[in-house]
Design brief:
Blueprint: H1 15-29, H2 45-52
Length: 69
């Protein structure tokens, strides 16, 4: 699994949008037609950022976890 993160104190400066634009270009060149991401639900900023950038909630997918230790 790969992760891309923007530090909280550097958010809202266009870095995340630039990363998404670069990623879209790379994926388009590789002829990848769709991508999935995982982010925090609610909490305002992460979900609204991705919605603003064209992502939608996929109702057929869920993310689950369990504690091992």
């Amino acid at each position: 699994m790969n992760e891309i993160c923007v530090l909280r104190d550097t958010q809202q400066k266009g870095i995340g949008t630039g990363l998404l634009e670069c990623l879209r270009k790379i994926l388009s060149e590789k002829r990848v037609s769709s991508a999935y991401l995982s982010t925090e639900r609610g909490m305002g900023m992460p979900e609204s950022f991705f919605t603003k950038n064209g992502f939608v909630t996929n109702e057929s997918r869920i993310l689950m976890n369990t504690t091992i230790f």
